[in-house]
Amino acid sequence: QLQAYGGGLVQAGGSLRLSCAASGVNFRIMTMAWYRQAPGKQRDLVAMITSRTTTVYADSVRGRFTISRDNALNMVYLQMNSLEPEDTAVYYCKLESLNIWGKGTQVTVSS
């Protein structure tokens, strides 16, 4: 099971940190990811982190967002800086290794 939280309303240029708690799995060996879906658009990968902490980012967020994990707490994070209105979306945590989705959390960036 996955539970994501930390979304909200922020002004352009601001920051938010999303958190996702995983349970019921051997978290430390799992690849985790964050996706987002804006209204009327498909759900796209934002960032991914492997069990060895190799990271992958979408071009649109590279340099602004940072994905990280804490295996002791079974948590994955998405630090989002320099937010833009185009980042407005529902953000989803995904246990990539097992194709398990968490419920989304809304991020709204006002201009």
What is the element layout, followed by pairings?
Blueprint: E1 2-5, E2 8-11, E3 16-22, E4 32-37, E5 43-49, E6 55-57, E7 65-70, E8 75-80, E9 89-95, E10 100-101, E11 105-110
Parallel strand pairs: 2-11
Antiparallel strand pairs: 1-3, 3-8, 4-5, 4-9, 5-6, 7-8, 9-10, 9-11
Helix and strand pattern:
EEEEEEEEEEE
Count of alpha and pi helical runs: 0
Uncertain residue segments = none
Q: Which strand-content bin applies to the residues?
A: over 45%
Q: Main β-sheet: number of strands, strand sense, barrel status?
A: 7 strands, mixed
Helix content: under 10%
Instruction: Write down the overall geometry.
Output: globular
Ends apart, CA distance between termini: 34 Å
Number of strands: 11
* Structural class assignment: mainly beta
What's the overall average pLDDT, rounded?
96
Radius of gyration: 13 Å
- Work out the oligomeric state of the chains in this entry: single chain
